[in-house]
Backbone:
C-alpha cells in the first residue's frame, strides 16, 4: 500500500499541518505551521511515532530547538488520523 498526502487547516483556513499517512497513520516527513504561515515544527514519523530529529522553529524561521526522538519510545503515542 502507498502513502497518501494529508493536509489539515486551522479554523481560520490557514495551513496547520501537512504530511503523509498510510492506513490513517502518520508516516514520513511532516510539517506544522503557525496561523501566520511560518513553519513551527518538522520531523519524521514511522508507524505513527515520531523518530529521528525534530526541529522547532522560532517566529523568524530560525531553528529554536532540535530534539532527537528515540524509535520505540514507550511513552510516544502514535499519531492516528481518522
Residues:
Amino acid at each position: 500500500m502507498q502513502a497518501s498526502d494529508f493536509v489539515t487547516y486551522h479554523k481560520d483556513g490557514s495551513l496547520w499541518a501537512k504530511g503523509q499517512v498510510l492506513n490513517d497513520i502518520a508516516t514520513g516527513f511532516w510539517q506544522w505551521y503557525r496561523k501566520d504561515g511560518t513553519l513551527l515544527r518538522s520531523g519524521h514519523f514511522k508507524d505513527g511515532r515520531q523518530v529521528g530529529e525534530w526541529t522547532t522553529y522560532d517566529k523568524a524561521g530560525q531553528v529554536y530547538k532540535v530534539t532527537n526522538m528515540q524509535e520505540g519510545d514507550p511513552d510516544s503515542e502514535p499519531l492516528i488520523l481518522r
Q: What stands out?
A: The mean pLDDT is 90. Strands lie at 4-9, 15-22, 25-33, 39-46, 49-57, 63-69. The CA atoms of residues 9 and 81 lie 14 Å apart.
